[in-house]
């Protein structure tokens, strides 16, 4: 199956990693896909005997419709992540070809860490909590520490070029029934939609808000304000509101009804 894919001409390069997408283009910033439109190029027919065996054996509930092929050079890795709940159904398949690697699984609730050795030509199926809760990733390094065949010792294994085939089933509905909201982007999307954008206030509603909150405040403080803020500034009272040197003066009120806060505008000098 590896010979079917021309990874020497990748669709894109991601951090020096060759990538090809089939069915739907995987968006790395989303750890998922944009569901529409699908790609013209679907999963190659050479993959279906392998996928059909997984379904018939009960490892998968349905045949995937999205495939991402990555070619990793020695020393390259994958940041820990959980694939988008909104984008994909339960059941992800990771097929490792060309080389073995250690994949790290971490439980964000308990802090548990499980390094899992993936041999060449192994297929890893993630379902349930391993799919929706645990993060998975590959450390950036050129060697892995592995147990010996008898389990009594540890050996250093040098990494080589590895090609991974990740098969996923795109979720057609926007909701997810998982129990892990802290990891669930579908739940977060729904919460944001329920909160919604601020609604536009109509004229009738605006008038009622002004009456209830603005006018009410002014009426409540009016008597106290008049009793304690009625005294005019002496020079303003003496001038009677006129400005020396100007033939006409227009005096306006800024914010209240009393002389203390009057401000002059639009004055014109006498000829």
UniProtKB/TrEMBL annotation:
GO terms for biological process: demethylation; methylation. Residues 63-171 form the Fe2OG dioxygenase domain. Keywords: Methyltransferase, Transferase. GO terms for molecular function: demethylase activity; methyltransferase activity; oxidoreductase activity. This is Methyltransferase. The keyword Transferase applies. Its cofactor is Fe(2+). The keyword Cell inner membrane does not apply. It comes from the Eukaryota.
């Amino acid at each position: 199956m590896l010979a079917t894919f021309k990874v020497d001409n990748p669709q894109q390069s991601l951090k020096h990693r060759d990538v090809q997408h089939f069915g739907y283009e995987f968006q790395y910033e989303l750890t998922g896909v944009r569901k529409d439109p699908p790609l013209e190029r679907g999963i190659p027919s050479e993959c279906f005997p392998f996928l059909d065996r997984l379904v018939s054996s009960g490892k998968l509930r349905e045949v995937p419709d999205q495939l991402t092929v990555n070619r990793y050079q020695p020393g390259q890795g994958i940041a820990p992540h959980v694939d988008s709940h909104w984008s994909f159904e339960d059941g992800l398949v990771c097929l490792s070809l060309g080389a073995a690697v250690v994949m790290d699984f971490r439980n964000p609730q308990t802090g548990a860490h499980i390094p899992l050795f993936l041999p060449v030509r192994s297929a890893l199926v993630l379902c349930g909590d391993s799919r929706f809760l645990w993060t998975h990733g590959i450390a950036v390094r050129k060697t892995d520490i592995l147990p010996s065949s008898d389990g009594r010792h540890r050996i250093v294994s040098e990494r080589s070029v590895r090609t991974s085939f990740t098969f996923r089933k795109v979720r057609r509905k926007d909701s997810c029934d998982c129990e892990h909201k802290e990891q669930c982007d579908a739940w977060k999307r729904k919460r944001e939609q329920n909160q919604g954008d601020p609604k536009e206030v109509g004229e009738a509603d605006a008038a009622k808000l002004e009456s209830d909150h603005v006018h009410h405040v002014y009426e409540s403080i009016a008597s106290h304000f008049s009793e304690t803020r009625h005294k005019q500034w002496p020079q303003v009272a003496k001038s009677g509101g006129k400005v020396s040197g100007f033939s006409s003066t227009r005096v306006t009120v800024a914010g209240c009804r009393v002389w203390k806060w009057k401000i002059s505008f639009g004055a014109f000098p006498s000829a």
